[in-house]
């Protein structure tokens, strides 16, 4: 199996379970690094991993 090095934006959104609008919000807020290749927006796998790790953990509510 081949290791993914970079995701085109639609593939990043599909594999990480977020929409295009949310992805651009994260990019514009500086929380997700993106690169451009012509008209394509690309997310490096290492930047995707860093973004995932930066998300806050969900704390269980006390009953």
From TrEMBL:
<keyword id="KW-0238">DNA-binding</keyword>
<dbReference type="GO" id="GO:0003677">
    <property type="term" value="F:DNA binding"/>
</dbReference>
<protein>
    <submittedName>
        <fullName>DNA-binding protein</fullName>
    </submittedName>
</protein>
């Amino acid at each position: 199996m081949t290791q993914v090095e970079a995701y085109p934006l639609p593939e990043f959104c599909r594999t990480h379970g977020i929409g295009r609008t949310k992805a651009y919000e994260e990019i514009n807020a500086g929380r997700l690094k993106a690169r451009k290749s012509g008209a394509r927006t690309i997310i490096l796998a290492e930047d995707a991993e860093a973004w995932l790790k930066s998300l806050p953990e969900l704390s269980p509510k006390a009953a």
